[in-house]
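Section handout, structural biology tutorial.
Before the tutorial, make sure you can parse a SMILES string by hand: atoms, branches in parentheses, ring closures as digits. In the record below the ligand is zinc ion, and the chain has 223 residues. In the tutorial you will relate the predicted structure tokens back to the input. Do not try to memorize them.
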Amino acid sequence: MNLRIFSLTVSLLILLTGQGCTCRTDSLTSPPPDMAAPSYKADLVEIVKVIPDAKTDIRYATTNNFIGKKVYPDARAFLLRPPTDALIAVSAELREKGYGLIVYDAYRPWSVTLIFWNLTAPDKKQFVAIPCEGSVHNRGYAIDLGLYDLKTGKELEMPSDFDEMNEKAYPDYQGGTESSRRNRDLLRNVMESHGFTVHPCEWWHFNYKGWEKQPVMDAPFPK
Ligand SMILES: [Zn+2]
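Predicted structure of the complex:
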């Protein structure tokens, strides 16, 4: 099956079945059943406050993203405490090798996931979370990131750009340059040795273990 037919089939399955939605199946855009109450106090930690040499390139606070719209009020990135602690260990290990983290996105309010779903073409839906399930970003347990060289400050080459919606984004893609694949695999190996798991379609996206127990949140970024 070629890639285009494969992605069309996946999209069709998602649309027809809700991809195993455990929530209401009459609408894929309903809030998930485990949505936290607005009063839920999330311990969101701002990443640059605990990893001072982490850079941010928060594309969703700009129009440079796959929907071409600014959906975050501020270019800031947050995670809940357990993945933050693991990320501190990741950054220490990479710092010794001469690399720093560049964060594209982390905690994402649920209403932004809904915007993404509504603005994504049917044949690209496999790259976005289904609103009725919520995403791991909504739970404060997922991060999108790349690497930069601590000496030059330059971003490391990867097989695709962040949020590029094609097979180059797959973490097992064997095309591109050897150094881009080496950079991607280094990031994945260090992240996975600290409790994160890479997304099957996105080399830059990692979920932290235990995310299933966390409620979906729609709280705005902390002040
Ligand atoms: Zn992501």
